[in-house]
């Protein structure tokens, strides 16, 4: 931290701007550098909020907030904390999707690290140039599958920046100890490649051999420079996501948010939904539209949960139906990856069916749970939803694709088509649904309920690995916080104002599990340690 003068005033992590008192201004060599008035942080928040509210377009609000983050991080987080529900869709899905698509156009200042393939001989140097010395959490992407918007190349950087903002806001990770990273390995997005403004390496994506070698060199550089950091993989294409996770999960403190974080939040939301529906998960037939990294990750955890509820592996597999763009995953298909094959149904089970698309599965199976991680907007059609709703009292329907434009259905339609019986959660935020003159909040089933808590847990406990059991405990603790458990009219997941507190509880449970799994140091006061670890947006 620069200790005096102009540099101190412009240090985003420690500046107070107009809130520096006169005594501080004298002490820090700031006298004359600021207008005379002394503001409180409360006044600064009110003023900044007015400025934000004046901007009509969400992307403009995003640009404004990113600018504030680059100027004064404490004020940025205080503003977000005081207006969480309103600002979350601006810094996160859906607006962050547009910010990634238009990244080069709206670019203002550098943040984080751009680890580019042309610099591959100097990765250690790149890591050493990181803007912040001590780092607790890295979020890294290669920009190839940004939400449901496909390959955004360097524009993908919007996602690690946004996710890390939520690590701080919800998980209390000190913003000075976060590091967003973009692996720039080219892009196959022709529109970006032909855009004169494009800021990334103007090159097609490199082939798999070069790619995995580069990722390996990157991981090596991270381990040498920051051996204890949590390395979170985000928005990698499915073909790379699973192999990367398998390669590194037992070697370092790491997890893949789209695979593991999504699975945990979905299971957490299903906990409340199954309770309200009056039928445990193990007695439901579950259909997943989308068999990418997110969909398969969720199904893997659902299967584990069914087994925990008493089914054998085979019995659980019988109840899980995965559908992708080519139809139902069946054992006679030759295009499936190893992780997809685990969810392939015997082709014999579809004998007599007229097809294997989603509509056919819903027609032929006694479906109770329908999940979407497909990027296929509107794929949960009226016919499909009405047929499903005729089979069960309380259909559980989660259109989880992001951003909003990719959702498999709109909650208002789901409510209408099912006569208000559907138990709904979406990936991106939607306005409340009005039913019987009452507004009903729609649960946002997004991994943001999980990853900040994982970051807090491993930071507080000094964990060295993220185990499957830690992710399951996160799901369970979130599930137990479902407002629907106490009142079936309530949403399936906690309200945003409660989420930082719920994250603290999840983090404590996850840290305890880490100790049980032998990957964290024992601590008799873990709950207190977790709370103490939390950073808060106050001027020091
Ligand atoms: N709610 C949440 O917390 C999360 C949501 N997601 C969302 O999940 C979506 C998928 O992510 P990934 O699995 O990584 O992507 P992916 O692209 O690897 O997988 C998409 C899957 O959907 C299938 N699909 C695509 N179009 C289809 C169609 N018209 N009909 C049937 N199936 C179709 C594909 O065959 C593929 O199996 C994205 O929109 C992403 O934003 C991802 C992670 C977390
Ligand atoms: C939420 C998230 O991680 C995604 O849509 O990719
Ligand atoms: Mg993601």
From TrEMBL:
Catalytic residues as annotated in Swiss-Prot or TrEMBL: 92, 163
GO BP: malate metabolic process
Residues reported to bind (S)-malate: 145, 402, 446
Domain Malic enzyme N-terminal: residue ranges: 69-249
Keyword Metal-binding: yes
Domain Malic enzyme NAD-binding: 259-515
Family: Belongs to the malic enzymes family.
Protein name, entry field: Putative malate oxidoreductase [NAD]
């Amino acid at each position: 931290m620069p200790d005096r003068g102009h540099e101190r005033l412009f240090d985003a992590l420690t500046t107070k701007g107009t809130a520096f008192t006169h005594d501080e201004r004298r002490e820090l060599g700031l006298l004359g550098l600021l207008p005379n008035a002394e503001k409180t942080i409360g006044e600064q928040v009110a003023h900044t909020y007015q400025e934000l509210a004046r901007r009509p377009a969400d992307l403009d609000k995003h640009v404004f907030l990113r600018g504030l983050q680059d100027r004064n991080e404490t004020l940025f987080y205080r503003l977000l904390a005081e207006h969480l529900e309103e600002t979350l869709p601006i810094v996160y899905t859906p607006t962050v999707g547009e910010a990634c698509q238009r990244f080069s156009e709206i670019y203002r200042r550098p943040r984080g690290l751009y680890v580019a393939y042309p610099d591959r001989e100097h990765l250690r140097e790149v890591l050493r140039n990181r803007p912040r010395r001590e780092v607790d959490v890295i979020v890294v992407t290669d920009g190839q599958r940004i939400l449901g918007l496909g390959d955004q190349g360097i524009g993908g950087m919007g996602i690690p920046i946004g996710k890390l903002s939520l690590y701080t806001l919800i998980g209390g990770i000190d913003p000075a100890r976060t590091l967003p990273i973009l692996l720039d390995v080219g892009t196959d997005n022709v529109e970006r490649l032909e855009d004169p403004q494009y800021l990334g390496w103007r090159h097609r994506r490199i082939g798999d051999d070069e790619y995995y070698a580069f990722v390996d060199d990157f991981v090596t550089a991270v381990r040498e420079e920051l051996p204890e950091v949590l390395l979170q993989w985000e928005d990698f294409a499915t073909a790379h996501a699973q192999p990367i996770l398998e390669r590194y999960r037992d070697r370092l403190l790491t997890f893949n948010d789209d695979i593991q974080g999504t699975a945990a939040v979905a299971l957490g939301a299903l906990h409340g939904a199954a309770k309200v529906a009056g039928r445990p998960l193990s007695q439901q037939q579950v259909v997943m539209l989308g068999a990418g990294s997110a969909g398969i990750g969720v199904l893997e955890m659902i299967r584990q949960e069914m087994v925990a509820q008493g089914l054998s592996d085979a019995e659980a597999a019988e109840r899980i139906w995965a559908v992708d763009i080519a139809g139902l995953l069946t054992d006679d298909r030759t295009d499936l990856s190893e992780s997809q094959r685990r969810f392939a149904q015997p082709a014999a089970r579809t004998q007599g069916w007229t097809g294997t698309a989603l509509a056919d599965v819903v027609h032929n199976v006694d479906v109770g749970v329908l999940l979407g991680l497909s990027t296929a907007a509107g794929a949960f059609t009226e016919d499909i939803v009405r047929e499903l709703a005729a089979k069960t009292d309380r259909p559980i329907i989660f259109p989880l694709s992001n951003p909003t434009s990719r959702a498999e259905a709109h909650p208002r339609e789901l409510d209408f088509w099912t006569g208000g019986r559907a138990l709904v959660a979406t990936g991106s935020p939607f306005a409340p649904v009005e039913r019987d003159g009452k507004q009903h909040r729609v649960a946002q089933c997004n991994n943001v309920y999980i990853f900040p808590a994982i970051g807090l847990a491993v930071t507080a406990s000094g964990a060295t690995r993220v185990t499957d059991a830690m992710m399951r405990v996160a799901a369970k603790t979130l599930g137990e916080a479902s407002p629907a458990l106490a009142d079936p009219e309530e949403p399936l997941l906690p309200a945003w104002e409660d989420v930082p507190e719920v994250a603290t509880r999840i983090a404590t449970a996850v840290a305890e599990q880490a100790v049980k799994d032998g990957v964290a140091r024992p601590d008799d006061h873990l709950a207190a340690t977790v709370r103490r670890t939390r950073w808060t947006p106050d001027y020091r």
